[in-house]
Amino acid sequence: MNLPSYLKGYLKKFCFGLNCLGFFALGMSSAVCAQTSQNLLLLRQQAETYLVNAYQSDQNEQLKIKLGNWDRRLTLAACQQDIAFSLQDTAGPGGSVTLNCECKDSPGWTVHLSAQVDIYRPVPVAVKSIGRGDLIDIADIRMEARNISQIPEESLLTTRDISGKAAKRMINAGDVIRPTLLDQPKAISRGENVTITANSGGIQVVMQGTAMTDGKLGQQIRVRNNQSERIISARVVGPAAVEIL
Fold it and tell me: Has residue 98 got a pLDDT over 60?
């Protein structure tokens, strides 16, 4: 179809305008989609920040956080409120945890994000092998960063807790020293001469005796009164010292 030249120019401008309108509409559509979908990358960054704040309790600690992956098909509506995070840490502290991410809009949504949280903190470690029954000196201990998410929290000790204690069983060099490895040192040996103290009605009587068994601080042992030759029970209160119960 042959058109006059002035109509061809007009039609060309008109078609160009339609193309511009199409591109403008496409851009607006993309912007609307971006505004109505939750930014999952930002959500993951917020989740990691939450975990750092939840577990970073000491400057000497080092955290290693590895977040799990969501389904690639996951799409969430953009939340108009701040995301509410809550933590499920049954073993604690750290290790394998679950983070709940909740949007409290109406309607809202909740998604769960798994994470591995490793917490490295200085813990007491044996410098050398320590034999069963040996007394542990402060020089036998060094503080070394270990992953405490693999160590029960009640097992975390200081060098002061350990120094002067006896090894309940063999402790190898490099082992983390835990309460289950420690025992009170022997304060009295069998056959040792001991001082026996008895308190009654504000009167204190002191006599000499002989230990019939080994004894640790606070332990009850049998003692022979050297004067009366009677065998009595007494509590170990110190080196070579017992008190009648």
Answer: yes
